[in-house]
Amino acid sequence: MAILYKNLKFKILSLGPLILLYFLSITEIDTHFSNYFEILSFNLQLIIVYYWVMKDPSILGNGHIFFAGIVNDVIMGLPLGLSALGYLVTALVAMYIRSVTVKITFFTDWFTFILAIFFSQLVNLVLISNFSDLNISYAIIFYNSLFTFIFYPLFWFLFGPYLTIISRLKND
Amino acid sequence: MSASRDDFGIAIRSALLKKGARQKFSLFFLIVISFLIFFLDSIKFKAIDTTRSFLRDGIYRFSSIVSSPIHFVKYSGGKIKTHFSIYDENKTLKEELSRLKNKEFDSQFLSSENRNLQKFIETDAEIVEETVLAKVLLDKDSPFLKSVIINKGKNSQIKKGMPVVDGNYLVGKTVEVNYLSSRVLLLNDLNSRIPVTLEPDAAQAILVGNAKRSPVLEYLPEFFEVEEGKTVFTSGKDGIFPAGIPIGKIFLEEKIAKVKLFSDPNQLSFLNIVLTNTDEVENF
């Protein structure tokens, strides 16, 4: 009974990051605070994808990352596949860093996140400017990327205890 | 050197193709699928358009249901805020009422003068357009697009390019029309371009969205002196938007003429879609 309860608890808790990713993609909640400070906006989905793929790729399935991206594109009115590509590129960088790094520290995590942001935004910009009619502001994309990078440590420390709980339940 | 290149290759190959114990798809497979979907989405093909339209309708409705607790929290917050500011609001409204009463006499005089002049130049006294009332289903901000989703679509005779108003004020135009829902591109979006006329001498300009709160006036006449506080209206020069829909007031910021919109794009809940003839836009 105790084992069953522990397994159930682990399954529910391990769904947390995935639920958060879908929730951010499908609901009206956004991380754009231009009403308060004109340039303040960041991409929380990228932070979630990078953090959890880096720490434990089994928490967010690749298929779920892709599907959350597609849903996000529909809601945002972007060409289908654009956000999905951005998230998958982020996951790819995280997987690569994970496989080449022996000991992951907070700083290696944070600074390698620049690579993930750079490549995901690059893919988005190349596709939008070459294959879409959308006009984009490079300044807005830059500020969004900058604040995504700046806010990463905050979420790193927020997700840390949650990851510890999941890892403890997994290993017990 | 070649050893490090080998390591890079192995790591990338592993990241792209390796599937974990609980993974059903490799990253490589999903990236290829994403590219495929992206290029299929840009094809204008009836079967794809219909599928896309139904997919969007479904996701918008589901999203609206999932977002309803958020709507409730926002609504409750707004109610509480209104409750606390009711005294100040009452005072402001009383002052406004007395000011408007004074203005009413001027307005009656100007209306009768306007009617007489219109009779004189033999134009239609007023253009009455049919409108459809719609509720805002989703209002999600993004760095790429400033838009809202409304709960009316092709089933309510809405077409692409129709003007959308909040009360009497223009807020944008429809850019995506599904069977049960539509997307309205707001005036402050980077992709928005509206031909406008400025009072008092009917100078023509284009209102260009800049992804900020107040869109910019461009293509103003040469040596035009911008007067702050003057009202901007639609000019109707595009043949789609009816002329004379109020948009906002002009103000100067760092010598750039901007328009403070009458209707706040972040506070939209019910909108009217003006059913104009947009066949030219549809065919375009």
Characterization of the model:
The two termini of chain A are 15 Å apart. Chain A is 76% helix and 0% strand. Chain A is built from 7 helices and no strands. Chain A has helices at 2-14, 16-26, 44-55, 62-76, 82-100, 106-131, 138-171. Chain A is an all-alpha fold and 172 residues long. The model of chain A has no long low-confidence stretch (mean pLDDT 88). Chain A has one domain (20-165). With 284 residues, chain B is an alpha+beta fold. Chain B folds into 3 domains: 27-83, no CATH class; 85-121, no CATH class; 132-283, Thrombin, subunit H (Beta Barrel). Chain B starts with a helix and ends with a helix.
Helices and strands of chain A, in order, run as: HHHHHHH
| Radius of gyration of chain B, taken over Cα atoms and rounded to an integer in Å | 25 Å
CATH architecture of the largest domain in chain B: Beta Barrel
Number of strands of chain A: 0
Q: Give the low-pLDDT segments of chain A.
A: none
Given the structure, what is the number of helices of chain B? 6
Unreliable parts of chain B: none
